[in-house]
Write a structure and sequence with these properties.
Aspartate Aminotransferase, domain 1; seven-stranded mixed sheet; alpha/beta; 14 strands; Aspartate Aminotransferase, domain 2; about 40% helix; globular
């Protein structure tokens, strides 16, 4: 008997039924007072989530589009920037910068490690001529299950001329991020993870310092031009300069309503509890976390594949036999880790269902595990 798949992936994530229902309704026109009110409401709710007074721009794109927008709008060809990479999506920021002709100083870490703020500080301190104009860094790296200390990085650039640009695509809505207090100049995110919507919307908050950089920038841009979006907000009502993804924005409004009803702090607490329970379940089964507990993500838990077990077959069994989808490793980690997502519209019973499937799939593919040991550890952790 086929059942709805449960996504326990880094994204896309599961979507609340009320969000799905709203998006299934007949579309409304985007040049109407009703839609303008919704659009403005989404921006105001995003400001609350971002903890910012800055304008939050909305694009019809994936999160990568918002990443590219930060590069295209803030710099000139040849500008020197520091890109801090702890995984696949840190690498992506570097690739985008190079495409636009920026001079990239790269600080890379072994996948599974977090960035060392002292090393970032040393690079900036040694930049005597102040040539480095910005730092690009990922808040939560889903390819490795590691979270960076963005508050500490913010202290290095706050009150200076340097910009700090954050990829919060997987962390927004799951990990607290204090945009204004931490001095974050551009923070980009997407709709398909903690924000509980389908892929297709991307957001970018823009500080006053970043707006000043926009005035200097000479890089080419058209659709992602921040100044066009700002003009739309300030001079033409609450509307973007181009046709928006109307149904997605209506769905996002509902998802944000649900999050506000739960309370943002309660949302963060739920993610933390689910992550700690996942870690407990994994270790109770004799498996090993890929990252240390101190830096392990509350959005996704990366787990080392057991010795001698073909983890791809385990993932396939979970999907095809038990209707649970988890993710494998990316690039050189393919076949070496698997990743359990617990982000967005996920609760304790989803987690227990996922661990039941994981125990069965591991056992059926040659890994000896005592039935129920992982589930028991998850339940015990959630009860504490």
């Amino acid at each position: 008997m086929a059942k709805e798949k449960l996504l326990m992936t880094p994204g896309p994530t599961m979507i609340p039924s009320s969000v799905l229902e709203i998006m299934s309704r007949q579309i409304i026109h985007h040049r109407t007072a009703a839609f303008e009110a919704t659009y403005k409401g989404v921006e105001e709710d995003l400001k609350l989530l971002y903890q910012t007074k800055n304008m939050v721009l909305m694009f019809a794109s994936s999160g990568t589009g918002a990443m590219e927008s930060a590069v295209a709008n803030l710099f000139c060809p040849g500008d020197k920037v520091l890109v801090v990479s702890i995984g696949s999506f840190g690498e992506r920021f570097g690739e985008i910068c190079k495409v636009y002709g920026l001079d990239v100083v790269k600080l890379s870490y072994e996948w599974g490690e977090a960035a060392d703020v002292n090393q970032i500080k040393d690079i900036l301190d040694n930049d005597i001529k102040k040539e480095i104009r910005a730092i690009f860094i990922t808040h939560n790296e889903t390819s490795t299950g590691v979270t960076n200390d963005i508050e500490a990085v913010g202290k290095l650039t706050k009150g200076t001329d340097r910009l700090l640009i954050i990829d919060a695509i997987s962390s927004m809505g799951g990990l607290e991020l204090k945009t204004d207090e931490w001095g974050l100049d551009v923070v980009v995110t997407g709709s398909q993870k903690g924000l509980m919507c389908p892929p297709g919307l991307a957001y970018a908050s823009v500080s006053d310092k970043a707006w000043a950089a926009c005035e200097r920038s000479t890089l080419p841009k058209f659709y992602f031009d921040y100044k066009k979006f700002k003009k739309g907000f300030l001079g033409q009502g609450q509307n973007p300069p181009f046709t928006p993804a109307v149904s997605l924005i209506l769905g996002q409004a509902e998802a944000l309503r649900i999050m506000k009803e739960e309370g943002f702090q309660n949302v963060y607490d739920r993610h933390r509890k689910l992550a700690l329970a996942t870690q407990a379940g994994v270790m109770a089964m004799g498996l090993e976390l890929f990252a240390t507990k101190e830096i392990s993500s509350f959005i996704i838990t990366a787990v080392k594949a057991p010795e001698g077990i073909e983890i791809g077959k385990v993932i396939k069994t979970m999907n095809q036999k038990y209707d649970i989808i988890v993710a494998g490793g990316q690039k050189h980690l393919k076949g070496k880790i698997f990743r359990i997502g617990h982000c967005g519209y996920v609760d304790r019973f989803d987690l227990m269902r996922g661990f039941s499937a994981l125990e069965l799939a591991l056992s059926e593919n040659g890994y000896k595990v005592e039935p129920g040991v992982g589930i028991a550890a998850v339940q015990k952790s959630l009860a504490e």
